[in-house]
């Protein structure tokens, strides 16, 4: 009963956010907002008092729920202040949107508290690590959206719920698609929140949580080790602690180095010392996490001739897009060879580096070929190649741009969609179907053409399960983008090519756009939100999270050999 009430009031609280613009209008919507406010106050207070009554030790109950208790006291205090201030002097009232956001944050806290008390729910989540990952992303997105709706986060009116949800999803899913201008719409506090969401999305909230556990020298349970092993795609549970610390420290080292290199370039543009430092850190995080968020209204178009900015951002994107496994493998091989020992890269690293290098070079040459008589003709020859190279790098799901995408030709957009759809490497901050997947499919097609019994890659056999997973990922990606594109064709007024480009960019978590994102309808924005979420988590994680228990059957069914293929 209490779970049902919680679900009901959470839904009512979220619905109340959509009614904020009607407050004070005297309309039925304004009356509904007031009713929701008082109902939620009664529920929150009643739920706490009921829990207090059911507990044998009131002091212990408050201690165990201290954070929620303090949050409730603060919220009730602000609510009462707002009510009494409105009676005395209406101008002294706090912004009602702020109170609504605080109220919903409190409801989210109660969700966490309620879930912690439901052992069966926790058991079902922990036994399936994929569900834990999906659940953590959903909660971070919701909390991020609620925080971004606070008035102090934006210049002018507070963000609408759909725009806040879109922006939070884009940040956590490290996409970079925006419905409002990041540079002008958000205050520095709002931009800092976006940077935190990008960092959480790039590394994963669960990975950061485990890092804090290790930092404070706490031990992990067997179930936690299984979850962490799933996230890191590692079978060696004895080295998980070192792996987590290595990933976090390597991330901060690369981002910090990138920020230091960007800092002088931003200072030269006349940006103040403190703001230039913040800009450097923000773009360092955004580039390494392949997010594509920029604090300039034109993305990085004003830096199209800056060799420093282009190369540093490109290096950060490349490092974030080849995965931590490949980075550590490269460092390990270099260290061993420096010591005189023989060492070679793993097959996974070779596939990623060769595939990434091929796509980067191919993308640069094709972009230059299709645009050198169009928008590139206005630039000096050196800047033409620099712009083509940078734009090819950002197609690795980063989303920055130094070229005006609304002026690109149809052929260029088609080429870009193909490269974006592939994306970066598995286990990286990038999206797409991944170059690893493409490598497995290429190996399968080569072996099939040669009539070989086994699928070989660098003289090593590829498991048939890997091939099946690769084709599943591709089919899932194509089907997802096709379905959302079909919906957008009906709901939006834009060129079909621009809509398809938008959906591919969302699924591959690239963030590049031809300029139609801000004009999408609510239905269109929801479709793009779903694609960003699907693209960031990946088809295999979502399919694993949604699957039921594995069934063992002793029945052997006849083979369906009569089905014709091709």
Query: Which segments are poorly predicted (pLDDT under 50) over 5 or more consecutive residues?
Result: 111-127
- Identify the strand order in the major beta sheet: 1-2
Instruction: Give the CA-CA distance, first to last residue.
Output: 54 Å
Overall, the morphology is globular
Share of β-strand residues: under 5%
Return the average pLDDT rounded to an integer. Answer: 80
Structural class: mainly alpha
- Biggest sheet details: 2 strands, antiparallel
- What is the chain-wise order of helices and strands? HHHHHHHHHHHHHHHHHHHHEEHHHH
Question: Would you write up a description of this structure?
Answer:
It contains 24 helices and two strands. With 566 residues, the chain is mostly helical. It has a domain at 1-117. Strands 1-2 form a two-stranded antiparallel sheet. The protein is globular and about 75 Å long. The model is unreliable at 111-127 (pLDDT under 50).
């Amino acid at each position: 009963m209490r779970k049902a009430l919680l679900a009901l009031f959470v839904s009512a609280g979220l619905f109340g956010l959509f009614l904020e613009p009607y407050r004070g209008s005297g309309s039925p919507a304004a009356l509904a907002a007031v009713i929701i406010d008082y109902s939620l106050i009664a529920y929150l207070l009643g739920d706490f008092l009921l829990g207090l009554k059911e507990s044998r030790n009131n002091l212990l109950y408050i201690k165990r729920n201290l954070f929620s208790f303090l949050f409730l006291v603060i919220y009730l205090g602000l609510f009462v202040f707002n009510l009494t201030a409105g009676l005395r002097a209406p101008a002294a009232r706090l912004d009602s949107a702020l109170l609504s956001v605080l109220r919903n944050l409190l409801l989210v806290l109660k969700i966490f508290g309620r879930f912690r008390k439901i052992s069966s729910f926790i058991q079902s989540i922990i036994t399936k690590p994929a569900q834990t990952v999906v659940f953590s992303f959903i909660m971070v997105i919701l909390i991020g959206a609620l925080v971004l709706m606070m008035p102090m986060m934006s210049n002018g009116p507070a963000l609408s719920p759909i725009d806040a949800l879109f922006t939070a999803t884009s940040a956590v899913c490290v996409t970079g698609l925006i419905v409002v201008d990041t540079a002008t719409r958000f205050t520095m506090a709002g931009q800092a929140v976006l940077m935190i969401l990008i960092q959480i999305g790039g590394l994963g909230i669960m990975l950061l949580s485990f890092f804090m556990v290790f930092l404070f020298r706490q031990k992990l349970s067997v179930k936690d080790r299984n979850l962490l092993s799933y996230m890191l795609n590692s079978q060696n549970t004895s080295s998980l602690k070192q792996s987590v610390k290595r990933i976090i420290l390597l991330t901060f080292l690369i981002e910090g180095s990138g920020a230091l290199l960007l800092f002088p370039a931003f200072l030269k543009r006349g940006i103040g010392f403190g703001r230039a430092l913040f800009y450097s850190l923000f773009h360092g995080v955004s580039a390494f996490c392949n997010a594509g968020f920029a604090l300039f209204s034109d993305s990085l178009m004003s830096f199209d001739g800056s060799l420093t900015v282009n190369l540093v951002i490109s290096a950060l994107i490349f490092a974030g897009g080849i995965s931590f496994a490949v980075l550590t493998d490269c460092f390990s091989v270099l260290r061993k060879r420096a010591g005189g020992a023989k060492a070679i890269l793993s097959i996974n690293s070779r596939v990623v580096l060769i595939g990434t290098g091929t796509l980067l070079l191919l993308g640069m040459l094709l972009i230059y070929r299709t645009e050198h008589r169009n928008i590139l003709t206005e630039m000096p020859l050196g800047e033409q190649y620099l712009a083509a190279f940078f734009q090819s790098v950002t197609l690795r799901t980063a989303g920055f741009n130094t070229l005006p995408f609304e002026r690109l030709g149809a052929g260029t957009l088609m080429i870009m969609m193909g490269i974006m759809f592939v994306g970066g490497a598995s286990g990286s901050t990038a999206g797409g179907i991944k170059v690893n997947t493409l490598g497995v499919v290429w190996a399968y097609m080569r072996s099939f053409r040669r009539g070989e019994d086994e699928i070989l890659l660098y003289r090593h056999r590829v498991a048939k399960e890997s091939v099946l997973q690769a084709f599943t990922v591709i089919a899932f990606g194509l089907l997802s983008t096709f379905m959302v594109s079909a919906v957008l064709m009906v709901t939006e007024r834009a060129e079909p090519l621009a809509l398809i480009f938008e959906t591919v960019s969302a699924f591959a978590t690239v963030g590049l756009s031809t300029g139609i994102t801000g004009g999408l309808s609510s239905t269109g924005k929801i479709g793009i939100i779903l694609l960003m979420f699907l693209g960031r988590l990946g088809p295999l994680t979502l399919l694993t999270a949604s699957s039921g228990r594995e069934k063992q059957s002793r029945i052997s069914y006849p083979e369906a050999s009569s089905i014709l293929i091709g």
